[in-house]
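Exercise 7. Predict the joint structure of the components listed below.
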Amino acid sequence: MALTGRAGLLALVGVLVVGLVLPSWQGILVVFAVLLACVAVDLSLAAGVRRLTFSRAGAISVRTGEPCAVQLTVHNPGRRLRGVLRDGWAPSAGVVDDRVAVDVPAGGSRVLSFELRPVRRGDRVSDRVTVRSYGPLGVAARQGSHVVPWTVRALPPFHSRRHLPPLLERLRELDGRRASLIRGAGTEFDSLRAYVIGDDVRSIDWRASARSSDVVVRTWRPERDRQVTIVVDTARTSAARVDGALGGLPRLDTSMDAALLLSALASQARDQVDFLAFSHKVRASVPRATLPVLVQAMAPLEAELVEFDARAAVAEVLRRSGRRSLVVLLTSLEPSVEHGLLPLLPALASRHHLLIASVADPAVHAMAAGRGDLEAVYSAAAAERTLAERRRLTALLARHGVDVVDALPDDLPRALADRYLSLKAAGKL
Amino acid sequence: MTAVSPDARRIWTAARGPVLIGAVILLAAVVIALLRGSGEGGALDPRSFRPEGSHAVADLLEQNGVRVELTDNASSVDGATLFVPQPNLIDPERLADLSRRASATVLLAPATGVARLEPETRQPGCPLADRAGAATMGGFVYEGELRCYDSTLVRTGTVTTIGYGGIFTNRDIDSEGNAALALSLLGQHERLVWYVPSAADRSQQKSLTDLVPDGWKFAALQLGIAVVLIALWRARRLGRVVPEPLPVVVRAAETVEGRARLYRRSHAASHAASVLRQATRDRLAPLLGVPPGEDPSEEIARRTSRPAAAVRSLLYDTGPVDDRGLVALAAELDAVENEVRKG
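Solution:
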């Protein structure tokens, strides 16, 4: 049960009654008895909450930060229900207004719509639906809760999608499908066609020209149907928060953004994308990924406080991709890479091309530039030590034929996509 | 059914723990109060065993057939000895009324004293206390018909005024003739009313609550009820609080900051200096076209106006060993780097 403001108001009116009319214990008892009677009437005449039935419908997934609506249907088998209803969701589900006044006639139903605007990626689960049913006097109410499960999956926001149009433009230039001053370049033989002035004479196919009346040139195009395996590290280092333009985000979220941009680009380039999230075991796996499937798979991923098992990850990658592919590992360049990943590189590099993308921390760069007092200089020394360690690791990995993209969180998705395009242009896929 | 509101059985299951705890606390309070009930009390309290208490006197009186009644309102004093250890706390009119009704009255150090004397052993010098003899007396000096012990004990009619209460305390009862004097003063009649006024008794005049009309008092009570009801209205939550499942998130730069603090605590100026030198060399080498790992001093000297030896010493020396030198070195390295970038 619950009392309302009217109960308090009634008791306040009672102050006048007691003070002016009946200044005695009897007076207080009389007022209390009246109050109690009102509460009893309300409680007995209010519609029961326990027998209400509920059902839900509406959005099941939405991109983080965008609005969606979830409908809640209330069916009332008993007498008329008047009151207030609260649909409980965790704060990150971003329910705009979680409590509404309800008036459901006896035996009737009402559909209530709640607007959600999730602020965090992941599965947002509804909590209890609570109804407070007022009695006819509005002095007291019955109150009860029901569990009406519903889950809205907040998909990764994919902020870097604004980079996609210029990248696709570059891809088309590469492809030769767009008229430009730069001739399309690639390593895969496309077709033979007649020479026109302006073509590179080095691309003239003399053997074909000999058979034909015209001078014939070979055209090339970028390779297609290559395989790109994206591995996102969801182990302990991905939990670290790195400040970017969008506020402090875990490295994992930046990695996902970069992975989404890369896979969008790669599927436009007609390459096949395999997605793998790995910590010490496979957390998510999407073979032949398309963007809608990929965001669904990424949404519930959270960083785990375990060590990244490089051996198991490499074994998994080798097991899954039979043919040569570009393996993009989104992780963090920490000293642990040297002991974990480095010894396994020969096995991986013999069959695949490895590209490591790492989220750099702007805070460390800011610390390295700090001067002035002793504390700042010591911080600068510690930051320089970290940066030197990363440079050393990058050089070490480069010696093993690994490409490294180490960029700040705001730049990483674009930098990774650019590196992919340049690898494609160079025919290294 | 999807309803999850608690029924009576679940409410009892949830509430019995707190109820049990409350009952245990209450029981403990009662037991402690019972155990500590006796032996307490302040100065000149006939129940107190402490040095400044008066249990010994009360005990002696009881042995001599005097009934000791400790009271805080002294309603019936007729035919009894009235002993007032703190007469200053009582309304003078009431005190006068009481002493008129009592057969004998003993007042301890009322505020009417005319002089002060140090408590010490004094001779009686009057018939009133000849049997007791010397006693520890002092305190205030009074005016009166019969004066003993240098006027620190006087009697006017049935009212005896005594300037110092030492003779009634457990500490001093056994020295000199204190016990005899106390017995002769307090044991004059079969009943002794030991009057220690309480707070309620002290204020015989009307208090604020007496002056307020009854109607207002009950109205205030009713107002309290209203406040409780309003508090209940505001306190009832519409459904439980939903917790947010927060991910584990650590600031990435925390390890770097930790290392900086370690450097600082151990005053690792030389180590920090070598790290900063290495960083500057690594940054300048690609700018100057020097292969990594080789000495860029010559190239730097060529581009700036600095002598090569000074640049080499800046970039390769070990030290400084103190903190101030480190700050200066960092500034110097920055200066060189800026000159190279500009030049």
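Discussion. Chain A has twelve helices and 20 strands.
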